[in-house]
Amino acid sequence: MFQGGTMRHFFSLYLVVLSWFFFIPNTQELQAAHTQALLQLRVYLEYPSSLQILDYYQGDLCWLSPSANLSIKCEDDEVTELKITGEKSLKPPWFNGYAVPNQTLSMNFSIDSFFITLTRLTSLRVLSLVSLGIWGPLPDKIHSFTLLQVLDLSSNFLFGDIPPKISTMVKLHALTLDDNYFNTTMPDSFDSLSNLNILSVKSNGLKGSFPSSLGKIKTLEVISLSHNELSGDLPGLSSLTGLHVLDLRENHLESELPLLPKSVVTVLLSNNSFSGEIPNQFHELNQLQHLDLSSNYLSKTPPSTLFSLPEISYLNLASNVLSGTLPDKLNCGSKLGFVDISRNKLSGGLPSCLANTSDSRVVRYAGNCLSVDSQNQYRGSYCKESSSGWKSFKTWEVAVVMVIIVVLVLVLLGSSVFLWKKYHSTKTTGQDNSSIGVPSEILANARFISQTMKLGTQTIPTCRQFSIEELKEATKNFDLSTYIGQGSIGKMYKGKLDNGSYVAIRSLPLSKKCSIQTLRAKLDLLSKLHHPNLVSLLGHCIDGGGQDDSNSHKLHLVYEYVPNGNYHAHLSEFSVGKALKWSDRLAILIGVAKAVHFLHTGVIPGCFSNLLKTKNVLLDEHCIPKLSDYGMSIITEEIEKFEAKGEKSKPCLRTKADDDVYNFGFILFESLVGPIACEKGETFFLNEKASFGSQDGRRKIVDPTVLTTCSQESLSIAISITTKCISPESSFRPSFEDVLWNLQYAAQVQATADADQKSD
């Protein structure tokens, strides 16, 4: 009996060992297949720096620590998440569907072969391939990823159609195809994507109508199709009860405004051709925080309830044909911080809640017929003219087109006669045209001209013109007691206006050769720069010259006053309770990055050379960052001369147009190590750069407050993007979009770590 039991026990053990023998090779073979696919993808992507770690990493790729540029996650020895972010984020002004040297992958790249290899990762749930220079039409085989929940192919060179078969990927939660070159119509079969939460295909060249099928996806939370060429009607979206963000800026949509769901938080519909009245239904949008309807053809009086929505903080109705009178007893919501009703046809008085603004609320109202600030208002007759919006514009547009055609015909006939008779040379015509009184540097910029034509001709300034008497009264004749200090350019004073609000006044000398006409054009351009993280320009005063006087000797720029000091001073604070934690610093850095990204890409032409440094980042009472000293290169071509006088001892500041990223890198560096970074400059960074690579090195160089309040992953992301920003080679520096993405990712990682720590 004992011997038989032993034999049975031995036989059972033998079967177990034998099963292990067969099982282990299968597992290794499966892992090897996925590893081989990943290594082959690296070859197709032409060995991007984000995959360099694969050159020497010998372990299981599933255990590779995630970074901002590479993340691989696995379940049961199968790759379920692949995120690769490259450095090919710069876009050429044109793209013809072929490889572009140094911006796309080479001519040898085959997008079909690439995706065939990619489909070998059959268990993928998250796929993100961003800024890798991938070019070509997106293959239909993308639908082979039947388990995919997140797809992000942003900032590549994909063109042609968005494959209709994407609608069969029913597990998708997020589809992001931003910053590509898709240039046909959107598929109208997305209603089968019943789990879709985020749809973002902004900054492409999409044509045709808004896909009506989107109105059937009840799970949608974000629709972002801005900066395309969509046209036609925008259907009602009130059935999307979970929608939070609707971003359709910069399209050609031309219907009346649709009804919106009560859940919406952000609505961005600017620079379209919407007409008619603003629906009264908008008063039901109790979650709405940010509403931008500017640069459309909206008419009649805006609903007064818009201004008093409980969560509204940003309301932009500028550049429409809104008319009528706002109620004297208009109520403004407690969170309303920015209102722009400028360039409409509003008349009557300005309601008290808009007129008597505090430091926390900015109100723009120039270009109407209001009975306030007559210097920046039209006469009443202007606002009594037809303001029926789009229809009247259509009639006017047809009339103008007819006139242009007649003029062109006459010009052609006249030119033929001149050529036949051999009268005037073309040089004479050139001389005649040169007398037009528009600054040559603005005429040379075609993008500025096209933007100006789109906005329409405006003869009144968009920000207030102060008299020198007002500013002298506000500053007690520029008394020394009101002197704040020397800014990057010019002297800074604190003033108090008649309405009790405080302002910051920058006074800078002007060359006698400066043209007043050119200066006013540049001031108008500067006044269009509006962003929550920019110090608002409230007005200006040109002292010492009249309309045509070229001997003006001083310019005063009037800004909102930001009371809580600058970022540099807060970084110098070491006392317990006052030193900025890492999460606070990240929030400030993200705000500044958003402002600079807006200056680079949100205005035409882009605004560069923005004198970025921690002393130019001001903090309000809520620690919200506001960038000052931006756009000075617009005002004067002598910026480098002025900066040389006031910044001789600041080696970490550059002012070339392509060096904003570099200078922001030093703001990042100073956030990590403290004010010593800017005092010692680039040499200090290069000497200490290696210290970032080890824990001991970080303990030696990183600010102790940062070390005690950060997660190591969040810190590593910030160090990585800092190193890239301060790269000596400008071609290796990231775009501000990449900088912003990395900072937001670092903040998200930090927030998760903080939440986990609290739960423990």
Automatic annotation (TrEMBL):
<keyword id="KW-0472">Membrane</keyword>
<feature type="domain" description="Protein kinase">
    <location>
        <begin position="478"/>
        <end position="746"/>
    </location>
</feature>
<keyword id="KW-0677">Repeat</keyword>
<dbReference type="InterPro" id="IPR001245">
    <property type="entry name" value="Ser-Thr/Tyr_kinase_cat_dom"/>
</dbReference>
<dbReference type="Pfam" id="PF00560">
    <property type="entry name" value="LRR_1"/>
</dbReference>
<dbReference type="InterPro" id="IPR032675">
    <property type="entry name" value="LRR_dom_sf"/>
</dbReference>
<feature type="signal peptide">
    <location>
        <begin position="1"/>
        <end position="27"/>
    </location>
</feature>
<dbReference type="InterPro" id="IPR001611">
    <property type="entry name" value="Leu-rich_rpt"/>
</dbReference>
<dbReference type="Pfam" id="PF07714">
    <property type="entry name" value="PK_Tyr_Ser-Thr"/>
</dbReference>
<dbReference type="GO" id="GO:0005886">
    <property type="term" value="C:plasma membrane"/>
</dbReference>
<dbReference type="InterPro" id="IPR011009">
    <property type="entry name" value="Kinase-like_dom_sf"/>
</dbReference>
<dbReference type="GO" id="GO:0004672">
    <property type="term" value="F:protein kinase activity"/>
</dbReference>
<keyword id="KW-0325">Glycoprotein</keyword>
<dbReference type="Pfam" id="PF13855">
    <property type="entry name" value="LRR_8"/>
</dbReference>
<feature type="transmembrane region" description="Helical">
    <location>
        <begin position="398"/>
        <end position="420"/>
    </location>
</feature>
<dbReference type="GO" id="GO:0005524">
    <property type="term" value="F:ATP binding"/>
</dbReference>
<keyword id="KW-1003">Cell membrane</keyword>
<keyword id="KW-1133">Transmembrane helix</keyword>
<keyword id="KW-0433">Leucine-rich repeat</keyword>
<comment type="similarity">
    <text>Belongs to the RLP family.</text>
</comment>
<protein>
    <recommendedName>
        <fullName>Protein kinase domain-containing protein</fullName>
    </recommendedName>
</protein>
<keyword id="KW-0675">Receptor</keyword>
<keyword id="KW-0812">Transmembrane</keyword>
<keyword id="KW-0732">Signal</keyword>
<dbReference type="InterPro" id="IPR000719">
    <property type="entry name" value="Prot_kinase_dom"/>
</dbReference>
